[in-house]
Amino acid sequence: MTNAKKTNKDAAKKADASAEAKSKAAAKSSADKQNGLLAGIIGRAAKTARPRRKLDPSAVAVDVVKNMPQLPKDPTKLRLAVLGGGSFGTAMANLAAKNGCDTTLWVRNKRTVKSMAKLHMNKKYLPGHKLDERLHYSHDLAAAIKDKDIIFLAVPSMAFRQTLKNIKPFITGQALVSLTKGMEKDTFALMSDIIREELPEVNFGVMSGPNLAVEIMQNMPSATVIASDSEPLRHAVQAALHSAFFRVFASDDIRGVELGGALKNIYAIAMGMAAAYDVGENTKAMLLTRALAEMSRFGVETGANPLTFLGLSGVGDLYATCGSELSRNYRIGNMLGRGMSIDAAVKKLGQTAEGVNTIQQVHEKASKDGIYMPITHALYAVIYEDKAALGVALNLMEAGFRSDVEFVMPHDHSNAALRAQMQAAQAERTDSPTSSKASK
């Protein structure tokens, strides 16, 4: 290399180094200016910001009611009775009492009533949670509902009709609101159907949503839906229960709201079983979304608005119930998934899990009316026909093709065709010795 070439190369390197240094210096200067500007903004904000006020729940509750002009501003004028001392009935009665309503919680067992009145606590269903001292208790049904404005029914579905028959002689114009999520055994009657049959002249509504009672008692923000044909009743329920931590939305789709609350119990059992098998997030997401499709499909076939299932009583309740160990139906499913029999699981739970009965009711109704409900049918096969869960799950994965979003995209196959495919696949799996061994 000649001296001239070497000199030119050295000069080029120096020029590049100088340019790089200038670039870094410029970038540093720009960053320093930005950091300085940001620091100045933060400093000024800190000097001028007001100190953060501590949240006062009672003040928030007052403000909530104050800003709801369509509701009575004084809920203390409302007189309520809540029939049923389970976890949800107790939570709603306590919430109404805290709002100042004249509220009586009716419990059938006299000894339980005495215990609750003395301790201000439901030791069996909500241990450790203090109840409002203004809440009244009674085991006398006639006295509990006398002169009340609204009667909330929070009894198990199997006792719902008989409870209506028991209160019928004492009804003098009270409105009824069902808090029960389920279906009557052997009749496929929802609670609203039973009310229409037993007390056809009574004004009524149904309430449902993602309402885990323990979380409500812990003042975790929650919401529900009151559905009724009566606007005054909807407003009255909102006034009685709406608080800083519990929002009450309204709907006129009684069938949709009630079906959402009943059907989601089926899929909570399925999700509990899936959790016992330690499935992945993909599986959970698939199960949850196909459950929603199944719910809305069934709802439309029985007279509900499919859009209702996109709200609190549909996807909201489905999500909460399928993802929480606080859910009784989820716990039942988890025990089934771990090999426990249905009778043993129900006995161990010690509470009513409405989904067990609902699976049977919906399976029979869907089979009769030709409604495509593969998850429900699969659960029925596992619980009531003692089929191997793995084999049933594999059948589900082979059950043909279907559009993703119900009521938006056209289906490539009819329900009947898909059902035939599923039955054929199941028959083939049963006849195959290899498949039978694998399913076990």
UniProtKB/TrEMBL annotation:
Pathway assigned to this chain's UniProt record: Membrane lipid metabolism; glycerophospholipid metabolism
Residue span, Glycerol-3-phosphate dehydrogenase NAD-dependent C-terminal domain = 253-388
Top-level EC class as recorded in UniProt: oxidoreductase
* UniProt region (Disordered), positions on chain: 1-32
Q: Where is the composition biased (Basic and acidic residues)?
A: 7-23
Q: Which reaction does it catalyse?
A: sn-glycerol 3-phosphate + NAD(+) = dihydroxyacetone phosphate + NADH + H(+); sn-glycerol 3-phosphate + NADP(+) = dihydroxyacetone phosphate + NADPH + H(+)
Task: Name the UniProt key words of this record, in alphabetical order.
Answer: Cytoplasm, Lipid biosynthesis, Lipid metabolism, NAD, NADP, Nucleotide-binding, Oxidoreductase, Phospholipid biosynthesis, Phospholipid metabolism
Q: Which domain of life is it from?
A: Bacteria
Annotated NADPH binding sites: 87-88, 108, 125, 181, 213, 328, 354
Which residues does sn-glycerol 3-phosphate bind? 181, 209, 264, 317, 327-329
Give the chief site where it resides.
cytoplasm
E.C. no = 1.1.1.94
Q: Where is the Glycerol-3-phosphate dehydrogenase NAD-dependent N-terminal domain?
A: 80-231
Q: Where in the cell is it found?
A: Cytoplasm
Catalytic residues of the enzyme:
264 (proton acceptor)
Function (record text): Catalyzes the reduction of the glycolytic intermediate dihydroxyacetone phosphate (DHAP) to sn-glycerol 3-phosphate (G3P), the key precursor for phospholipid synthesis.
Q: Which family does it belong to?
A: Belongs to the NAD-dependent glycerol-3-phosphate dehydrogenase family.
> What name does this protein carry?
Glycerol-3-phosphate dehydrogenase [NAD(P)+]
Its source organism is Psychrobacter aestuarii
